[in-house]
Write a structure and sequence with these properties.
single chain, 309 residues, mainly alpha, 2 domains, 15 helices
């Protein structure tokens, strides 16, 4: 795919030789070459990546280059950047005409195939940006599924804001794509069972190694509860969908149910028309024995809860 990405330029051979021979500025970081090689045509860039993989360059460095290259030629990724970034960090895409939607779809699917498959090699926020862009472009189902699986592998590194992906489906049933989050969670839980599910978080997961209470599954449980609290005010969010996501988190993953209680309370407040039987059904997701004293005190005085709670 060459449409929308640069064709070979006079400086390509110089850049290629510079990378191949290991030429680099003094006192530079490992990403000094990202911007230079982002001007290469995609066919040559792929050859460069293949050579670097053969020579044992670290996967995280290659992933960083791929992310930089992708942001240069996928306008949607720039819109996903964190607000407040310097405008000089925006890609030159804005200076010229962007690639066609079809070219962007093909390009994104190629980037997905090139990204390292190992957990933690690709920044989690970049994967979420890539997934959002893939949804907008309506890439192939296998590509979407693969991106969701990639995120599922490192879901413990995400934030509730990362999960707030708009619903791009024609039905617009809900404001956010809750089904996508459900699938990502299921991928995580399937892998967590394979790996034993009890290993403490590493430094890469953003926590101190060896912490007895913070494991990936407990972090993900807190993440999902936070996400549920964010989407609960959506009046279009049906009870079965909210309930299914809340129930998908294993009971052992929640040392406390305070986060779940907060999400349920927000949902009840935003959906006052629920029948008593529906409210009871929702509250059965909680274990009152796992509420803190503060949450328990609040629950006792909470008129939104069914009397039997």
């Amino acid at each position: 795919m060459e449409h929308g990405v640069p064709m070979q330029s006079p400086g390509e051979s110089v850049l290629w030789n510079g990378i191949r021979t290991g030429a680099r500025p003094k006192n530079s970081s490992s990403d000094w070459w990202y911007e230079d090689v982002s001007t290469l045509s995609f066919s040559l860039y792929k050859r460069l990546i293949a050579v670097m993989e053969c020579r044992g360059v670290k996967q995280e460095i290659i992933a960083g280059s791929l992310a930089f290259y992708a942001k240069r030629y996928l306008p949607g990724l720039n819109r996903c950047q964190v607000s407040g970034e310097s405008s000089t960090r925006l890609t030159p895409m804005a200076l010229g005409s962007p690639p066609s939607v079809e070219d962007q779809k093909i390009f994104l699917e190629e980037i997905d195939r090139l990204l390292p498959a190992e957990k933690g090699q690709v920044p989690t926020k970049f994967l979420f940006g890539l997934l959002r862009t893939a949804m907008i472009l309506q890439v192939s189902p296998p590509c979407l599924s693969n991106l969701e699986k990639r995120i599922g592998l490192q879901l413990a590194q995400a934030t509730p804001e990362d999960l707030l992906m708009p619903n791009f489906s024609y039905s617009m049933e809900t404001l956010y794509d809750v089904d996508c989050v459900q699938r990502i969670l299921e991928y995580f839980l399937a892998m967590d069972q394979v790996t034993g599910g009890a290993s403490p978080c590493s430094i890469e997961d953003g926590q101190l190694m060896g912490s007895p209470s913070l494991t990936p599954v407990t972090m993900v449980a807190k993440l999902i509860d936070g996400y549920l609290a964010e989407v609960a005010p959506d009046v279009k969010l049906k009870l079965p969908k909210f309930q299914a996501l809340a129930a998908a988190v294993p009971e052992y993953a929640r040392p406390l149910d305070d986060g779940l209680y907060r999400a349920i309370d927000i949902y009840l407040k935003s959906h006052p028309w629920l029948a008593d039987s529906e409210r009871e059904q929702l509250c059965r997701l909680m274990d009152c024995q796992k509420l803190s004293l503060e949450a328990c005190t609040h629950a006792v005085q909470n008129e939104r809860l069914p009397l039997e709670s």
